[in-house]
Fold this protein.
Amino acid sequence: MNVNKQFLKECALYIRGEVPEIKIRGNSKIISLFANTLSESRRLYLALQSGELSKTLPLLENKRAASKLLREKTGYVWPL
């Protein structure tokens, strides 16, 4: 399997809560950006699953901001 596809699969499993953590290696600043984006994506997913729609909009904005910062700093477009 392609490394990027495997990475995205592991990210999706983390976001859905099927795995408690994923391991990312590399530059600590870039890892921090990915970790924040993953965390915000997971928070949004959990809120959507719980039906807490009133909390969804701020979480969506947080996820978008994290994704945008990741893209600006690394060029990586967050697909999740």
